[in-house]
Amino acid sequence: MTRPSRTGETSAIALSAAQAGPTSPGRVADAMGTAGSHDALRRLNAAISELKALSVEPLLNRAVTALEAEDHETGGRLAIQALEQDERNGFAWYLLAIARERAGDFTSSITCYESALALLPNQADVANDLGRLAFRMGMKPEAEKLFRHFLAARPNHPEGANNLACAIRDQDRAEEAIEILRPAIEANPTAAMPWNTLGTIVTEQGELTAAHTFFDEALRLQPNFPKAQYNRANVRLSLGMAQDALADCDTALAGTLAEDERQMMRLSRATILMELGRTAEGWDDYEARLHPQFADCTQFQAPGAPWTADTDLSGRSLLVFGEQGLGDEVMFANLLPDVIEALGPDGRLILAVEPRLVPLFQRSFPTAQIGAHATYAVGGRTVRVAPFLAEDAVVDHWAPLGSLLRRFRRSVSAFPARTGYLTPAPERIAHWREVLQQAPAGLKVGLLWKSGLMNGARRRYFSAFEAWADVLAAPGVSFINLQYGDCAAELEQARREMGIEIWTPPGIDLKQDLDDIAALTCALDLVVGFPNATVNLAGACGASAWITSAPGAWPRLGSDHYPWYPQMRVFTASALGEWGPMLSEMADALAQPGGPQLRRF
Question: What's the predicted TM-score (pTM) here?
């Protein structure tokens, strides 16, 4: 690409480095403007002023003034008064939409934006704000259409191009998103927002050094840019720069007013604190995931009072909800024996878990009442319930499982040395030991190498299958396939290119049969893989396991091991994407004379 002559030298170098390459979970801070930005409100006020015949003009002007002063309650009330006089006033619908969005009422807000756009088809700012809200609610294709509508009216508008690039990026079209940003950056060389988005795209492509450069450029152009500061913090954490990441995150928090963004940053700060070994502070910030203004907040509907860290549990009934991902439900269950002990003989534990975990958890905690939780989307929010409870059930307290960590796991030393807290079925372990005799001779090692969800931002956390070649070449090992999902291509590649037969156990669904998977991991000599639900099940059941880890992986809690599973060995990459040396170390450990050293308890 020809470097734009109007762009500063740093910008030109950074822009030429933008490549769409191999992606990240991790929440990025999308700089997309805010509901009814000051510029948009000024344009709206000018449009209102041109329509002097409007009887509701004074109300609308006062509503604009209130919104500019960040008073969404007054702005919304005045907009409603205007609509009571003229229900087809598009300006009033637009102002009400802005007010409701700022109040966190996204469902009502999107309805109001739609009404405003229908009545004001030539007001491009309405389409931009509606698109931004649709994006926020996960409606990426709809957001793309609305941002294109805005850009048609305002070509090369930096915010419009930026927003469209975000929507396209999140539909796994990274190269197209970069090409949308290029002309906008060339036409607006001093605009910082597109640089921030460019950084998020290449972050998700695993190009962390380039991403750091782009966030640096955004901050050079706009030193007070909290979202870029926050995004750079996440990149620095992945590069092993945890202390610098914390400084960036704290600076971003200090400059952020919007509550939803503050909670997002607090949640990221929690993982940084954990990587630094400041576990207690980390769990405190981890509560940000439950803040009602956090965009991905799960709300829990349950009888009884919410549990707090100083609640006396002795003799009480406590309903605990599994939360986050399946692997987290398994890992966080490390604390359940302590909870049962705190409840005492007169207390009662009720546990709502993912449906596939019910049999395993019921066997593991026979004194508890175990049932499946259910999750619904209600008004743009996620709501989790325990439908197995009777309508008249009496419960003293309820808590999300992760919140209990604030009391029971405030330091690495608080983790017990016991190995295994989940109990697989003994008869199924015996069954699988017999079945495994059908596999090729050698040490029976279960293998996982990828996530079942490998879209967009997750790819950079997983090595290519080829990177496992040295591990697969270890002598005297019979590899057993534990990889769920479609992996036929990799199994054939191992046969054809590496001469390795990865044996798939018969009669088991490696995604659904979690109780049987737990037994299978205990029948194996060793399980190796990345931190997913299966490896967590192996660790929680006391099976011997080796796990790969990236810099900044918070479950290590600042240690060189996984406190959750004392028998588990951790192999950590020096930087995200630097998988080769880590996997070579694992291969050497697997091939050592006399067989690998396995921690058995």
Answer: 0.79
